[in-house]
Amino acid sequence: MKKIIFLFSILTILFINGYGQEQSPQDKTLGYDLTWFTYTAPTTTYATTATDSNWYYTVLNESKGPVKYNFKITLDSISGTKQVTPVVLKAKIWPSDSWTAIDTITWSTGVDTTILFTQTTTAQYYRYWRVDITTALKAFIIQVDELSAKFWE
Q1: Using CA atoms, how far apart are residues 106 and 58, in angstroms rounded to an integer?
Q2: 24-46, pLDDT tens digit by residue?
Q3: Comparing C-alpha atoms, which of 141, 147, 145, 134 is closest to residue 77?
Q4: Interatomic CA distance for residues 128 and 94, integer angstroms
Q5: CB 62 within 8 A of CB 51
């Protein structure tokens, strides 16, 4: 009986340890056979709240070579004082690298808008991509209605 309990304990520890290792640092992984995705937020989940002023979405793009890209972000101002808000496309090669800002588009009017990040001429060597939105005031509540991305090798 002790051997069965011991074996069950070891299996439980291995399962918990293995489950923790499968957690990934990105929101979306595009395998080698995938070139695009669309994220649509739930209608009741806002990107920022009265107590949080940062939203980001991270993608791991498993390409065989450098890529060109298009990102489309549809933003909806929900409530609060409208303000200048930078929308930053960031990238990095390795998980342990720091994020490099690739492009910044400033959302200055606070009205609903669509922002496009496009690079169709020079391929980039990054694997991890992140769209980062940080508002200056925590009371400016926004919704990300859509985030779509397309990659070309």
Answers
A1: 20
A2: 467 777 777 767 668 777 666 77
A3: 141
A4: 7
A5: no
Which of helix, strand or coil describes residue 22? coil
Domains in the chain, start-ordered, CATH in brackets?
25-152 (2.60.120)
Residues sharing a CB contact under 8 Å with residue 86, sequence separation 6 or more, in sequence order: 104, 105, 106, 107, 133, 134
Give the number of other Cβ atoms within 10 Å of residue 115's Cβ.
18
User: CA nearest 89: which of 75, 99, 101, 106?
Assistant: 101
Tell me phi and psi for residue 5, to 5 degrees. -65, -45
pLDDT digits (tens, 9 = 90+) for 1-19: 655 555 555 555 545 544 4
Q: Give the predicted TM-score (pTM) of the model.
A: 0.76
DSSP structural state of residue 26:
S
How many Cβ atoms are within 10 Å of 82's Cβ, its own excluded?
Answer: 16
Round to whole Å and give the CA distance between 129 and 107: 20
> Maximum CA pair distance of the chain?
70
The strand pair at 67-79 and 113-124 is best described as: antiparallel
Q: Identify whether the C-beta of residue 67 lies closer than 8 Å to the C-beta of residue 61.
A: yes
